Amino acid sequence: MTAAATAALAIGVSLAVPGTAAAKDTPQLRSKPIVKKFEGSKDKASVKAACAIDAYGHRGYRVCGFDYFRYDWGGGNYEYFVVGTNYAVWHIWKGASGWKSLGGKARTAAPNGTYATSPVGVATIGTDNNCWWRPRGNGSWPGGWRRC
Predict the structure, then answer these.
(1) Secondary structure (3-state) at 111
(2) What pLDDT does 6 receive?
(3) Among candidates 64, 66, 103, 95, which has minimal Cα distance to 79?
(4) Which of 33, 76, 88, 129 could connect to 117 by a Cys-Cys bridge, CB 3.0–4.6 Å?
């Protein structure tokens, strides 16, 4: 991870739900995301191991030792993001029929994982050791991965 990417990680991000009073303080879209750590794992398992993660009645598997996070959309609705055992980014939310792939190809070496971004999106370190970002659109994940 580059020094700039490492310096951009922070703990304690809160994200506003669009249409709420807090949303007026939400940053507007910009071309480069600010990568922030929201919630992560600190398990001691090897990064070669698979760790189960259960959400909304669906079991998925993530790379142990990699960070993961969730967005709190309010009303008990969380959206979880992990690096799966195939090193793609996966997510699940309340009402989803299971874990869904956002694609991408994360670097297999730690430290790595998924990270919250502002504007709303997800970032990971790719196989080329660069930060890669996928922004969230209006309730969906249009387009593909962009370099941070």
Answers:
(1) coil
(2) 31
(3) 95
(4) 33
CA distances from 147 to 81, 86, 128 (A): 18, 20, 11
Collapse the DSSP code of 21 into the 3-class scheme (helix H, G, I; strand E, B; otherwise coil) and give the result: helix
8 A C-beta contact, residue 131 and residue 148: yes
Do residues 115 and 37 make contact, with C-beta atoms less than 8 angstroms apart? yes
The distance of Cα 8 from the centroid of its chain, to the nearest Å, equals 14
∠ CA(93), CA(110), CA(10), 5° rounding? 60
Alpha-carbon distances of 54 from 92, 136, 139, rounded to whole Å:
10, 23, 23
More confident: 81 or 12:
81
Contacts of 86 (CB under 8 A, 6+ apart): none
Instruction: For residue 127, give the H/E element and its range.
Output: none
Scan for tokens 């309340």, then name that residue: 94
Q: Global pTM?
A: 0.71
Q: How far apart are CA 126 and CA 141, in angstroms?
A: 18
pLDDT computed for residue 117 by the predictor: 86
Type of residue at 76 = G
Residue type present at position 83: V
